[in-house]
Amino acid sequence: MKLVNRVSVFFLAALAVVLIAYSGAFYGLVRARLVRQFDQELHGAFNSLVAAVEVEADEVKWQPLEHTIAIGATDQPDEVSWVVIGDREQLVEKSRNATPALIAQARAIASPAFHGPDVGQLVMNGDWQVLHQRLAASWREDGEYEHDPPGEDERDLDSFDELVVVVARSTSTLNANLRLLLLLACALPVGAWLAAAVAGRWFCRRALQPVRDMSAQARSMTSANDVDSRLPAPQTNDELADLAAAFNTLLDHRHRAFEQQRRFTGNAAHELRTPLTVLLGQIDVSLRRTRSPEEYAATLRLLRDQTAQLRTIVESLLFLARAEEDALPPDSETFSLAAWLPDYMVRWNEHPRRNDIRLEVGPTHDGRVRASRALLARLMDNLVENALKYSAPGSRVEVSAAFDDGVALVRVRDEGRGIAPADQAEIFNPFFRSRAAREAGIAGAGLGLAIASRIASASGGRLECTSEIGRGSRFTLRLPIAGKTARQGADV
Ligand code: ADP
User: What is the pLDDT of residues 108-151, one digit of tens each?
Assistant: First the structure.
């Protein structure tokens, strides 16, 4: 199910529940109020008429003039009608709107054949509510009278043995009002629900339009060369804009990584091609004619040198491609740097410039570092080799170790040509070689410092460079002392 439909269904279902509850409550309350009002008016009229009857011991008097009775004076359809019936079902008085049917009903109630209660309520013709009360002189109730009951001729015109008051009101208007109310209570919510369904769907589609645009754009970005395309960023300043911005940032990172990879591959191919071309050239020249054993030996030595260089480049490339930047090498161990460094430096004792190299290890420290000895040696090889390569014979190359606030520092300092400030930011990138180094014809592939820097970070440390043109360079390896907390290690 599409997101638009899911959101719409949820929203419309919730709205339907709310509307049904609201309409049900509204209809129930208004209906109860109308019915109560109808009953109150009917009973009010009934009570007024009953109050107009004076019940005495020997007679019942109909005295409407002493009470103001304006009930039933109009022709309103829901106006209360009333009838008063006297002895022998004689019509005493009625309201102007009393119908013949009501008069007949009142006479029936007053007749001796009526067996209902003296005070009661009944329904006439289906839609008339009728209240009636029989009021009789009390002697008739008690069955005793001090004297003989007065004869009919002795009575006044407004006095009777008993009177029956009948009040009625048609429920047709009330029912019509209730039907209209029911219709409104059903039709209005249905109308509102339909309008909300149409508007809600439109809003949902509109709100999710950026998502559709983004997916369409993402689907169109299938070409591997299409590295510049980005998702359209909606100007809505909401979660979707955040999503598009985050995704575009990710694409930027990917693009940079892709570019780096491409440069790396191009440079690697270039670096491999040069020694291969030299190799092929040497072989072709040698094969042009028959050579003396000495010439073959000289050519083979040359080939061996080129092949060794080729192997160094391939190994470096493999190392850079394989090493995970922040993973500690598997052969890592904890050892004393102060003890290891002099052992390591022994390998430089055979170098032609061995007398230029100085080793200084600061006051011994109980701090130990955690690293791979082999990789640390490789890192140091690159630094010392560079220091010798980029400085004049006879100038000093200083290797030192020191400990500073939980960090081990290994420094390689030379008094050579130095590195231009602009180049200092680049020297740790694979294949970077300064223009000065290339112009001076100093051999190298630009991989040594990239590898050294990768080893430093894999050991939890950092490699830094400070240099001044014409005065020399200083490379500093900072390694955390083993056993220090992660926080202190992070300060390296
Ligand atoms: P390579 O030495 O093979 O060119 P590196 O990665 O070891 O590659 O060094 C990268 C570049 O940094 C060198 O080409 C050189 O320009 C510069 N560089 C490195 N070490 C030094 C140094 N000690 N003195 C001057 N320049 C240096």
Answer: 999 989 988 989 999 998 889 999 999 988 776 655 555 555 55
Distance 240 CA to ligand 1 centre (A): 47
Contact 455, 403 (CB under 8 A): no
Other CB atoms within 10 A of residue 145 CB? 14
Cα torsion through 198, 204, 207, 209, rounded to 10: -90
Task: Give the number of residues written for the chain.
Answer: 492
Contact 469, 419 (CB under 8 A): yes
> What distance in angstroms lies between residue 155's CA and the mean position of ligand 1's atoms?
142
Q: What is the mean pLDDT of the chain?
A: 87
This prediction's pTM: 0.56
Q: Which of 254, 85, 101 is nearest to 170 (CA)?
A: 101
Give the residue, out of 384, 385, 390, 466, with the most ligand 1 atoms within 8 A of its beta carbon, to mutate for a pocket test.
390
- At 490, the pLDDT band (50, 70, 90 cuts) reads very low
Range with top average pLDDT, 12-26, 152-166, 303-317, 362-376: 12-26
Q: Which residues make Cβ contacts (< 8 Å) with residue 417, sequence separation at least 6? A: 390, 391, 436, 440, 469, 470
Instruction: Give helix 3-51 / helix 172-207 axis angle, nearest 10°.
Output: 160
| Centre of ligand 1 from the C-alpha of residue 80, in Å | 113
Task: Name 194's Cβ contacts closer than 8 Å, sequence gap at least 6.
Answer: none
Q: What residues are in contact with ligand 1 under a 6 Å CB criterion?
A: 382, 386-387, 390, 414, 416-417, 419, 427, 432-434, 437, 444-450, 473
Closest C-alpha residue for ligand 1 atom 12: 427
Q: What is the rounded distance in angstroms from the CA atom of residue 350 to the CA atom of residue 81?
A: 134
- Which run of H or E residues covers position 437? helix 435-439
| Longest pairwise C-alpha distance within the chain | 176
Give the C-alpha separation, 165 to 119, whole Å: 9
Residue 197 Cα to ligand 1 midpoint, Å, equals 70
Q: State the distance from the centre of ligand 1 to the C-alpha of 414, rounded, in angstroms.
A: 12
Q: How far apart are the first and last CA of the chain?
A: 53
Of 120, 83, 122, nearest to 99 by C-alpha is 83
What stretches of 32-147 adopt beta strand conformation (E)? Answer: 53-55, 60-62, 81-85, 91-94, 119-124, 128-136
199 close to 22: Cβ distance less than 8 angstroms:
no
Pairing assessment for the beta strands 357-361 and 397-404 based on DSSP bridges: parallel
Q: Of 109, 57, 66, whose CA–CA distance to 84 is shortest? A: 109
CB burial string 64-84: b at 16+ within 10 A, e below: eeeeebebbeeeeeebbbbbb
Tokens coding 487: 């926080």
Instruction: Check residue 485 and give its pLDDT.
Output: 45
